[in-house]
Backbone:
């Protein structure tokens, strides 16, 4: 089984403010056991900014010179070498070689980079090397935003044709309430409709990381559409790692629907992993109903544009509730669409032709 395992900040730092080598040694031993059992894995980790903050303690005067995001980027740049050094040491104890890769969610948006990156990771896996991935926070702020590395892990799982995405956090799964403050909180063991769950939970972040449960469920939803099961489990418990490949793993399991065919699944995965993550369009209810009927998306149905994109980019198509309902290849850049909306004038051709649109409803 090929796994993409994301270790959240709380998990990597084991509930502290700094790396604990003994804990990382224990985690490496668990991964070595998975390797011995015939599984291969890619690890996505957070925690660089938190670790870096321990080594660069800015005074209030020094902090005032930088924006909040600039400080986080500074901390992440300092913390990342400490994380990879600690992981190299931990995995070397169990005779496993690791390789570091700093990616962004747009790494897979260009065809050449998509093939090059996935080929390199496949070569690593073939040679028994463990890829350790983090967001390249020095050149992009997206992975430092809420849930950045959760979304990155989902995209990597999709691009690498993983059999399972595992999101390790500090709870025993997904609950209907906050399990830390509500004693009667009930855990969801299996989720078949992540959209329903997303509407039930909020997007509050944890104290250390930037993920929050909403971002994890959103990442699980993305993998779900690509036909990849996702497990959200307690990575603070060493025994959890022993059972993440089971049919009934600990935590919460998101079970995707059956994809009609292998070719259809490959098409969905290409659209999801290659989309432009810095731009999207938000559509009204009428346009949403039209694309559900496999019709083209017209500019008249677009309420507004988020971010930037260029002609032939694959972009997300969101409904009014902010849910991604489809992906498609756009025939116009973001500025042209904004101008059409502002002037209330139709474009000469569909923004996304039906043949270049992939609906994410099941």
Residues:
């Amino acid at each position: 089984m090929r796994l993409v395992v994301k270790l959240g900040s709380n998990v990597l730092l084991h509930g502290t403010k700094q790396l604990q080598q003994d804990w990382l040694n224990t985690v490496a031993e668990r991964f070595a056991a998975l390797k011995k059992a015939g599984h291969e894995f890619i690890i996505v980790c957070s925690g660089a900014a938190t670790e870096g903050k321990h080594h660069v303690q800015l005074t209030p005067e020094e902090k005032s010179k930088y924006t909040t995001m600039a400080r986080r980027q500074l901390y992440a740049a300092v913390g990342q070498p400490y994380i990879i050094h600690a992981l190299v040491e931990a995995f070397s104890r169990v005779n496993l070689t690791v390789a570091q890769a700093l990616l962004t969610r747009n790494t897979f948006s260009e065809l050449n980079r998509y093939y090059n990156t996935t080929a390199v990771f496949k070569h690593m896996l073939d040679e028994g090397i463990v890829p350790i991935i983090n967001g390249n926070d020095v050149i992009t702020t997206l992975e430092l935003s809420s849930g950045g590395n959760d979304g990155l892990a989902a995209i990597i799982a999709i691009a690498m044709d993983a059999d399972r995405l595992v999101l390790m956090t500090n709870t025993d799964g997904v609950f209907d309430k906050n399990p830390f403050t509500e004693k009667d909180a009930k855990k969801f063991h299996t989720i078949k409709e992540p959209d329903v769950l997303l509407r039930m939970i909020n997007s509050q972040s944890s104290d250390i990381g930037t993920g929050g449960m909403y971002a994890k469920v959103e990442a699980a939803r993305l993998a779900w559409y690509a036909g990849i099961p996702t497990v959200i489990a307690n990575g603070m418990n060493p025994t959890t790692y022993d059972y993440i490949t089971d049919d009934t793993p600990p935590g919460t399991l998101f079970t995707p629907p059956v994809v009609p065919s292998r070719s259809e699944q490959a098409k969905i995965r290409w659209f999801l992993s290659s989309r432009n993550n810095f731009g999207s369009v938000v559509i009204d209810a009428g346009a949403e109903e039209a694309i559900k009927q496999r019709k083209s998306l017209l500019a008249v149905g677009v309420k507004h544009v988020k971010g930037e994109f260029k002609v032939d980019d694959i972009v997300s198509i969101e409904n009014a509730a902010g849910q991604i309902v489809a992906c498609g290849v756009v025939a116009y850049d973001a500025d042209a669409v904004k101008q059409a909306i502002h002037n209330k004038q139709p474009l000469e051709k569909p923004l996304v032709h039906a043949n270049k649109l992939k609906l994410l409803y099941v």
